[in-house]
Amino acid sequence: MPEETAGGSILIVDDEKGVRDSLQLVLEYEGYRIMKASTGQEGLDKVEDGELDVILLDVKMPGLDGLEVLERLRPAETGRVVVMISGHADIATAVEATRMGAFDFLEKPLDQEKVLLTVRNAMSKAQLERQNRLLRREVEEHYMLVAQSAVMQEVLSQMERVAATDARVLITGENGTGKELIARRLHGFSGRAGGPFVPVNCAAIPRDLIESELFGHVKGAFTGAQSNKVGKFELASGGTLFLDEVGDMSLSAQAKVLRALEEGVVERVGGSTPIRIDVRVIAATNMDLEAQIEAGQFRKDLYYRLRVVPLPIPPLRERPEDIGPLCDHFLAYYAAMDKRSPRVLSSDARLRFQEYPWPGNVRELRNAMERLVIMSEGETITVTDVDAILLDRGAGAQGGLEDLAHLLRDVPDLGSFRDETEKLYLLKVLQDNNWNVSAAARVMGIQRSNLYRKLEKHGIERGDTLEPSAGSEER
Question: Which of 11, 127, 203, 210 is the least crowded, having the fewest Cβ atoms under 10 Å away?
Answer without folding.
Answer: 127
